[in-house]
């Protein structure tokens, strides 16, 4: 079965990619992912914010007693020698490249223009095959306009694009007023690939303690619907590679994403839930699905259910929604419950 695909200019043996998570940050699990069939790996993000906080803590420690206790400073390594800044992460990139026979894509989350470009350059120099931009940004400032938010993404992309020559992917938010138009603008600004979508942390409330809950829920398969819609709309309309991300748990979600036109399908939650070996289960499920329908290659099916390929493109739009609303039947009350209470 020929599952080969291209993603952000990289030739991949199949469309399954392990997205950024702690699993891709350890050499052992990274090797296990490759053994189980992953075609590429996205390393966890290098967070500029974290590096700067760490450096500030270190500087505080080494300068707080400058006058009163100078000899104490000899206990600390010089800042340049210490494992601060991105050293550890750059080492991960180098080691991952040595350990893995598949493309290794670094991920960056910056907080300043200088940070985005300087770390991007260092990641390229460390040998990353590509770079994913994790613009994790919640526009909580109500004065920020949608144009401001869009411009921020475009500015970051343009700065990084003009700094590195490796392929660059943008991990997109699903919350733009016009996702399609934003995707086109990002490709025009130099994105080789678009990852649909970033999954922003959404807090909940603990009603007993009256606190904001800071737990992390892994994704569920019903979350594929939003990326599925936008991948279907964008497939065949942009020359940027398209990555599906969010909600994969079984081969079923992988197949659906490929049918609407994804070049690759990424997964994190399923791997954290079932272990790195789950990559092999996803791959086997994809092959089985194709085989059962006598498809010999992935190319034969990719995008055959995109919006452009469908005889009824409205199926992805509002017309379908109205039909569904009109066809909805209110369920009958459960037996034994008085009608007045069941409402
Ligand atoms: C524990 C954990 C750590 C993650 N770390 C990162 C990260 O460092 N950078 C990033 O861009 N995304 C990160 N993600 C998000 C995933 O890459 C992915 O976008 C998200 O989980 C949705 O995909 P899924 O439904 O396959 O899990 C993380 C997710 C989890 C659950």
Written description of the protein model:
By secondary structure, the protein is of the alpha/beta class. Helix content is 37%, strand content 15%. It contains eleven helices and twelve strands. The chain is globular. The protein binds flavin mononucleotide. Flavin mononucleotide binds next to strand 4 and helix 9.
Topology:
Elements: E1 5-7, E2 10-12, E3 16-18, H1 27-35, E4 40-47, H2 48-63, H3 87-99, E5 104-109, H4 113-125, E6 130-134, H5 146-161, E7 168-172, H6 179-188, E8 193-196, E9 204-206, E10 211-213, H7 225-234, E11 241-245, H8 251-259, E12 264-267, H9 269-274, H10 278-292, H11 318-327
Parallel strand pairs: 3-4, 3-12, 4-5, 5-6, 6-7, 7-8, 8-11, 11-12
Antiparallel strand pairs: 1-2, 9-10
Helix pairs in contact: 8-10
The protein binds flavin mononucleotide.
Characteristics:
343 residues; alpha/beta; 8-stranded parallel beta barrel
How much strand content do the residues show? 15-25%
> In angstroms, what is the radius of gyration?
23 Å
Bound ions, cofactors and other small molecules, one mention each:
flavin mononucleotide
Strand order of the largest sheet: 3-4-5-6-7-8-11-12
Shape: globular
Helical stretch tally? 11
Strands, count: 12
What is the helical fraction, as a range of percent?
25-40%
Main pleated-sheet profile: 8 strands, parallel, barrel
pLDDT < 50 stretches: none
